[in-house]
Design brief:
It is a single chain. 37% of the residues lie in helices and 26% in strands. By secondary structure, it is α/β, with parallel strands linked by helices. The protein has two domains: 233 residues, P-loop containing nucleotide triphosphate hydrolases (Rossmann fold), CATH 3.40.50.300; 72 residues, Alpha-Beta Plaits, CATH 3.30.70.3190. The protein has a six-stranded mixed beta sheet with strand order 6-7-8-3-9-10, sandwiched between helices. Strand 1 and strand 2 form a beta hairpin. Helix 5 packs across helix 6. The longest helix has 15 residues. The protein starts with 16 loop residues before the first helix and ends with a helix.
Length: 371
């Protein structure tokens, strides 16, 4: 494939890039992988258009007992989970939990020691090229050609993804630029941009060709708050038609962004559920907030004496009103008793509401104290 006359590094790929694309294809054929040729990106997009909207609910990303060892160290240990089309799943865990290694295994960066990684039904080890055509991978630190312009780099990526002719490559790059909100820097050299822009260029690289699978490693790292909000909004939108796997150590981000959460710690899956379900399942006690027209200390003493109450904390008290947090014994529903006690003493009951455990509390309960 000939990429056409371009100014190296400014309008397109650096010198020799066309040869690199040719060499990649030659290596693929010589390797004898036996993969059938596939249509170019525009042809695949047209085929999707004829078939109608992508169906949700099919498992598109599958990790089956994935294990990866580096010498004597086990980075990922028997990890299994799946992501369906039409959902965003978060890989959550502290630094060193194995999140990045798991995503790299799914992206085909290196093979697993054991287990299987499937992308859109394809084994990334047995059919690496076909699998990679179906995924977009944005690493935490994207490898970018700093001397190239944003548009030129994305056109180069489109060429590497077999986008077709020059017009098709430009169209694929333009679509990624639009989605990643990079229009204002499309003609700028990547090396002159901030780290936040580098993250967005890395995300745009993953979006080139609109693959059905997106693997995003810390996609909001280095972004300012406004850009983080935009990126999360984009990921949510992409999750409507794609299978999206996002790694993060930011609890609040995952709780607001993801449909489901897989918690990793020391290379193993500790839990997997919807954020609210995970928090509820791991809640060791029920907590209730009570507000009454009563003196603070008197309210604390009265509530603490109610059967089934483990602990009472005074949150606020002034001018004859008080607000307390009540922690009940496991399995105890003390709401009716609390209400009866407050009203029975002649105090006005202003509020009584259960407090849901947050994902952060569930996470800390799972991993326990770090050693």
């Amino acid at each position: 494939m000939v990429l056409g006359p371009q100014v190296p590094g400014r309008d397109g790929p650096p010198a020799g890039a066309a040869h690199a694309v040719q060499h990649l294809r030659w290596s693929r054929d010589r390797a004898g992988l036996g993969e059938d040729p596939e249509p170019s990106l525009p042809d695949r997009a047209a085929a999707r258009g004829r078939a109608g909207p992508r169906a949700a609910g099919r498992r598109v990303i599958v990790a089956e007992q994935l294990t990866k060892r580096f010498g004597a160290r086990t980075a990922v240990d028997g990890v299994s989970f799946a992501v369906e089309r039409g959902e965003v799943v978060g890989l959550l865990g502290p630094n060193g939990a194995g999140k990045t290694t798991a995503i790299r295994l799914l992206a085909g960066v290196f093979p697993p020691t054991s287990g299987q990684a499937l992308v859109d039904g394809l084994d990334v080890v047995a059919s690496p090229l076909a699998a990679r055509r179906r995924l977009g991978y944005a690493p935490e630190r994207p490898a970018l050609h700093r001397e190239m312009t944003v548009a030129g780099f994305l056109e180069f990526v489109a060429g590497m993804k077999d986008a077709g002719g020059r017009r098709a490559r430009r169209a694929a790059a333009a679509a990624a630029i639009e989605r990643a909100a990079l229009r204002d820097v499309g003609d700028e050299r990547i090396g002159t941009l901030s780290k936040g822009y580098h993250q967005r260029v890395g995300l745009a690289q993953a979006l080139v060709g609109d693959p059905p699978v997106l693997l995003l490693d810390e996609p909001t790292g280095g972004l300012d708050p406004a850009r983080s909000v935009e990126t999360r909004r984009l990921i949510r939108a992409l999750g409507e038609e794609h299978a999206v796997l996002v790694s993060s150590h930011a609890l609040a981000e995952v709780e607001g962004l993801c449909d489901r959460v897989v918690i990793l710690h020391r290379g193993r899956v500790l839990a997997a559920d919807r954020p609210a379900g995970l928090a509820a399942r791991l809640r060791q006690t029920s907590r209730i907030e009570v507000e009454a027209a009563a003196p603070g200390e008197a309210l604390v003493a009265a509530l603490a004496a109610v059967p089934g109450v483990r602990r009472v904390d005074l949150l606020a008290g002034a001018n004859g009103h008080a607000r307390c947090r009540v922690e009940a014994e496991p399995g105890e529903d003390v709401r009716a008793r609390l209400a009866a006690d407050v009203t029975g003493r002649g105090w006005g009951l202003l509020a009584l509401a259960p407090l849901e455990a947050s994902l952060e509390e569930a996470f800390l309960t799972l991993i326990g104290p770090e050693r």
